Amino acid sequence: MNHRLSGETTSHFKLVNFNFFLELQFKQLSEEIPIVFALLVYQDCPKKSTAFFAREFHSFEISSEEISLFSSELDVQNLGAFFKVTQMGEYESKYIYFCPLSQKNFITDYLFFLSETILSRTEEESIEIHAQIIQEYLNLYQVYHQQNEEIKSLEHLIHKIGHELRNPLSLISLMAENLRLSLAESQQKQVVSLQETITNLNQNLNQLIDCSKRARLKLELCDLRYIVRKSIQSLNPIVESKAVSLQYPQDKEAIIAVDYLQIQQVFGNLFSNAIYFSPVGGKILCNWQFFQKEIIVTITDQGQGLSPQDLKNIFTPFYSRRPGGTGLGLTIVQKIIMDHGGRIWAENLVLGGTKFTFTLPR
């Protein structure tokens, strides 16, 4: 079987539509409990405004003016714990229920329902479970857009820096080569050192420019096992020097449409970091599983873990845990994953070490 198969290409993946997700959650609730109206009011961070999503069920009708009233004039500041359903009286012979989700800048996100009957505790618990699921998805939605805005700012900055530095570096490189050729062989050592420095600067500049490029994905069906194996092979010298064990599920097929070279770069960077921060003889584990419409990939190591500052800045441009590092590797990794329509995050393991997790659409 081919590990890299041709497939239909597209310029990008789209996120699962947030409204479609809410539609499914509300529909499930309407089938479980006798609600006739459901409303989510939340702070839409990307748009920097309050937003709402409302649905009617069982031929119930409500005007946009009434929805606006429910989404703007309720006193929701002191109505109990998050994810706890509260009964708030009646509205046109329907029973009002409220469930706070979270609070940002003293503004509460919440769910609001109208029910045909008084809900049992079991039915309230069903709402509370759905509320937690909605909040988790809402958090992902907000984080994705926040990361996307940060990436756009980075692209603009680096595009400008790249143009300003590339021409001077080319000129310096040419002048250094002319200087080397004009010197006797015994005097060329310092110039060679200068040229190596220029080469490193050029490589760093290329990394910067990689960060700023718009996604031009060349998608093809690939088996992750093949990509991981190739990534590990390219790192064999440092794997052997630290005697680390790098394991992945060789019997677990995972064929998805990705840009092969870019995803290989993702694995190469994450493995390189894991090896660098692992103790001699340490174990690095890579695993994946399919969940709904995405694949979830994890890479864990047995290093010292991430400090609170690391966790906060791990994907920030120019932030590096390695002495002499450019601080761009994980920024590029994040951009590649987001260009594919996925997400990436890092966390510490309870027993020590670090886990990087990223998702890719199926």
From TrEMBL:
Residue ranges of domain Histidine kinase in the record: 160-362
Domain of life per record: Bacteria
SUPFAM superfamilies per UniProt: ATPase domain of HSP90 chaperone/DNA topoisomerase II/histidine kinase, Homodimeric domain of signal transducing histidine kinase
One protein family per Pfam: HisKA
GO cellular component: plasma membrane
SMART domains linked: HATPase_c (SM00387), HisKA (SM00388)
Gene3D superfamilies, A to Z: 1.10.287.130, Histidine kinase-like ATPase, C-terminal domain (3.30.565.10)
Catalytic activity: ATP + protein L-histidine = ADP + protein N-phospho-L-histidine
Keywords: Kinase, Phosphoprotein, Transferase, Two-component regulatory system
UniProt EC number: 2.7.13.3
Key word RNA-binding present: no
Keyword Kinase recorded: yes
GO molecular function, one term: phosphorelay sensor kinase activity
InterPro entries associated with the record: BphY/WalK/GraS-like, HATPase_C_sf, HATPase_dom, His_kinase_dom, HisK_dim/P_dom, HisK_dim/P_sf, Sig_transdc_His_kin-like_C
GO biological process assignments: cellular response to phosphate starvation
PANTHER family (alphabetical): PHOSPHATE REGULON SENSOR PROTEIN PHOR
The name this protein goes by in its record: histidine kinase
Native species: Gloeothece verrucosa (strain PCC 7822) (Cyanothece sp. (strain PCC 7822))
